[in-house]
Amino acid sequence: MTAQQTELQYLPPDLKRELLPKHVAVIMDGNGRWAKHQGLPRIMGHKAGVDALKDLLRCCKDWGIEALTAYAFSTENWGRPHEEVDFLMTLFQRVLRQELREMVEENVQIRFVGNLSSLPRSLQAEISRAMEETKDNCGIKFTIATNYGGRQEIIQACRAIAQKVQQGLLQPDEIDEATFERHLYTIGICDPDLLIRTSGEMRVSNFLLWQIAYSEIYITDTLWPDFDRHEFHRALCAYQQRERRFGKV
């Protein structure tokens, strides 16, 4: 842990614990641009991005935030150069293998959401092992959206519900929000209170479209590998200034 990270190991005094978000979601954008600014290949940006995510996870744990969801790889990301996609798949697998033991020791519950069946079989095996070995952990819930798309998630939920109606297991007038949520990838995970997007892009990029209906959104120009505890502190300070009315007065 760096000196700056150590400085913010504990919850800063200007943050009110009772006003912290229970669930933070992050769109980790800017790895490639960060690498370009450093005169490095894009893959080095992804490696630096992994380090930033690891520290954010530990920061959430240190500060008492219950859940973190990270947008690691979207369904649209398959359109990137083959070399970059192959590197990302290998990177995911290697990081999972290297970090799992520490995650278990730190009581982290790991979960992956998305169309995991399209991932390389070796990565699927590492994902299954990570989820199995941490399923009973009761610490921070760490969800990684991989080969994930919000529209695709909604479509697959509609198909599953339609099939139950067709089989006579469900009546159309029984379909409500709770029914729909039980058919999403994120079943059992509370909706994010705060969505953070780095690199200054002003869009949600097909991420958790149903779940972020009432999330507070924080956008920063900081590129993801530079998103450290000080940046997270700023995001939480901004969040605690918001008045969350959920459509009410």
Describe the fold and architecture.
The chain is of the alpha/beta class and 249 residues long. The chain has one domain (22-149, 191-240): Undecaprenyl pyrophosphate synthetase. The protein has helices spanning 3-7, 31-37, 42-63, 82-105, 121-134, 150-166, 177-181, 229-240, and strands at residues 23-27, 67-74, 109-113, 141-148, 194-197, 216-219. A 6-stranded parallel sheet has the order 3-4-2-1-5-6, sandwiched between helices. Helix 2 packs across helix 3. The protein is globular and about 55 Å long. The mean pLDDT is 94.
Q: What class do helices, strands and sheet pairing give?
A: alpha/beta
> In angstroms, what separates the terminal alpha carbons?
44 Å
Quote the beta fraction: 5-15%
CATH class: Alpha Beta
Order of helices and strands: HEHHEHEHEHHEEH
So, the CATH homologous superfamily? Decaprenyl diphosphate synthase-like
| CATH fold node name | Undecaprenyl pyrophosphate synthetase
Rg (CA only): 19 Å
* Multimeric status of the protein: single chain
What CATH architecture do you see?
3-Layer(aba) Sandwich
Largest sheet: 6 strands, parallel
What's the overall geometry? Answer: globular
Any idea how many domains? 1
**Percent helix range:** 40-55%
Task: Please report the total strand number as a whole number.
Answer: 6
Overall average pLDDT:
94
Biggest sheet strand order reads 3-4-2-1-5-6
Specify the number of helices.
8
Task: Detail the poorly predicted runs.
Answer: none
Protein name: Isoprenyl transferase
GO molecular function: ditrans,polycis-polyprenyl diphosphate synthase [(2E,6E)-farnesyl diphosphate specific] activity; magnesium ion binding
Keywords: Magnesium, Metal-binding, Transferase
InterPro entries: UPP_synth-like, UPP_synth-like_CS, UPP_synth-like_sf
